[in-house]
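thought: fold this chain, then report.
action: predict
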Amino acid sequence: MAQPGENLRINADRLWDSLMEMAKIGPGIAGGNNRQTLTDEDGEARALFKRWCEDAGMTVSVDEMGTMFARREGTDPDALPVYVGSHLDTQPTGGKYDGVLGVLGGLEIVRSLNDLGIRTKHPIVVTNWTNEEGTRFAPAMLASGVFAGLHERDWAYDRTDRDGKRFGDELQRIGWKGDEPVGQRKMKAFFELHIEQGPILEDEDIDIGVVTHGQGQKWLQVTITGRESHTGSTPMYKRRNAGLGMARVTELVHEVAMDYQPNAVGAVGHVEVYPNSRNIIPGKTVFTVDIRSPDKKILDMMDARIREGAAAICEALDVGHEIEQVGHFDPVTFDEGCVKAVRDAADRLGYSHRNIVSGAGHDACWINRVAPTAMVMCPCVDGLSHNEAEEIDPEWAQAGADVLFHAVVETAEIMP
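observation:
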């Protein structure tokens, strides 16, 4: 199999300029981005990405979940394509690189191949998956989950945001509901470049994370129901305080995660308190528990302990509770061949690297179920992500995209 030479690199300045140009769409309030899925800003970002892809000679298709596929033809029309990409949607207070680096890094591969006049046997398809973040419509990785057969399309269409707006309706509204049936595409392989979203690579001064596994994850939505009453005149022993129940479950989640170190994690994230008034004891709380582990048995034990503990806490406080699992995926082992392609690329290019377990969920975790998949990670400053202060060094972006370039092009096979 032909391999790209050691001298082949992406155009790092062009990649960085593209990242900065995309970041102008849906700016946050503190230097990052608020470009949540299926908003007008998401639609604007998609239009820019499509224009860039077409300018690079690719044809762009959109499936019924709004996922975008930009194809560069190979010399063999029957060869399975090599896919590469990530997502353009962000958290409400997101950074400029989470997901976006993987999409624009894929675009830069095609641009660089065009510059160098290189053809590949297999087509290369750059992908923007819809609703990876799951912040507006739960669960995360929604479109890739439908693609991989974990969710039904119509079930996904019926997901609602906090204002009651349906995913399917919003997809139609912004004009990015395609006609292509979801999941019919076959892939030779899928590669995803992403910032680490953790501190390991920066702390150890390592250029590249070769992702071998992904943590399993469960999102539990907990609803605790007590009784609203006056904070000043209700005796302590008469209170049915849903806020106190939430506080004790929050502490429980932390304790459970600490019992399964070093790799397990857990926290309460999204929180809603009703009626959210200064002088009313909360009568209802709704909050999410996020637990993760690379070991399925441990993940299941954490889940069971939290459910049992929450039940005991709520019984003691005389409050009701419900727990709904709103997101889940099992731990992931990425394809050995694709992982080797990433590792070999880092070696070939002279970048330092280490194996790493992804602590976050990614579209690659779902696509790994239907196609050989691997991920490339680059450092981010202080390991900070899902925060407007998220930052990476241009040289880190270049290293990650260089490794992605070699792994993808090696898999797509350069033609003489």
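thought: worth noting. The CA atoms of residues 106 and 126 lie 6 Å apart.
final: tokens above.
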